[in-house]
C-alpha cells in the first residue's frame, strides 16, 4: 500500500508547525510587534533548502512587511539552530522567509465580486 503523503510534505508540515512555535515563543525580538503566521513551507527536492511563507496583519502594512522579513531572515540561523533541537533530521534545511499576500489578494477579489453582485443583482 502506498503512502498518502511523501516524505518532503510530511517534513514541510512539521517544519511549518515548529517554525511557527519558535517565532511565537522563542524569538524575543522587540522590533516584531505583530502576530506572524507561517502559511506554507516549500522544501527543495534534496530537503536542504526551505522557503517559508509568512503572513501577518498590521496597519502599516508595507513598512512592516519589509522590516519583519529583514529581521526574520537575519534570525534564520538562530531559528535553524532551535529546529535542530526539536526535529530529528540529518540535515536541517536552510531557511529563507518570504511574504505570502494571498489572503489580501483573495480579499480584494471577494470585494470586487461583491460589488459586481450588488450592481447586477446576481445571486452567486
UniProtKB/TrEMBL annotation:
This protein's UniProt keywords: Cytoplasm, Ribosome biogenesis
NCBIfam families tied to this protein: rbfA
GO MF terms held by the record: ribosomal small subunit binding
HAMAP family (UniProt xref): RbfA (MF_00003)
Any Gene Ontology CC annotation: cytosol
Localization annotation: Cytoplasm
Protein name (Swiss-Prot/TrEMBL): Ribosome-binding factor A
Principal localisation: cytoplasm
Family according to the record: Belongs to the RbfA family.
GO biological process, one term: maturation of SSU-rRNA
Pfam families to which the protein is assigned, alphabetical: RBFA (PF02033)
Function: One of several proteins that assist in the late maturation steps of the functional core of the 30S ribosomal subunit. Associates with free 30S ribosomal subunits (but not with 30S subunits that are part of 70S ribosomes or polysomes). Required for efficient processing of 16S rRNA. May interact with the 5'-terminal helix region of 16S rRNA.
Assembly with partners or alone: Monomer. Binds 30S ribosomal subunits, but not 50S ribosomal subunits or 70S ribosomes.
Organism: Buchnera aphidicola subsp. Rhopalosiphum maidis
Amino acid at each position: 500500500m502506498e503512502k498518502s503523503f511523501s516524505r518532503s510534505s510530511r517534513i514541510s508540515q512539521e517544519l511549518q508547525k515548529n517554525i511557527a512555535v519558535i517565532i511565537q515563543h522563542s524569538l524575543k525580538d522587540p522590533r516584531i510587534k505583530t502576530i506572524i503566521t507561517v502559511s506554507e513551507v516549500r522544501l527543495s527536492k534534496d530537503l536542504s533548502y526551505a522557503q517559508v511563507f509568512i503572513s501577518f496583519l498590521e496597519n502599516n502594512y508595507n513598512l512592516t512587511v519589509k522590516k519583519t522579513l529583514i529581521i526574520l531572515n537575519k534570525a534564520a540561523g538562530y531559528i535553524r539552530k532551535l529546529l535542530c533541537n526539536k526535529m530529528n533530521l540529518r540535515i536541517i534545511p536552510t531557511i529563507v522567509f518570504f511574504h505570502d499576500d494571498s489572503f489580501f489578494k483573495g480579499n480584494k477579489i471577494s470585494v470586487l465580486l461583491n460589488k459586481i453582485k450588488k450592481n447586477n443583482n446576481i445571486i452567486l
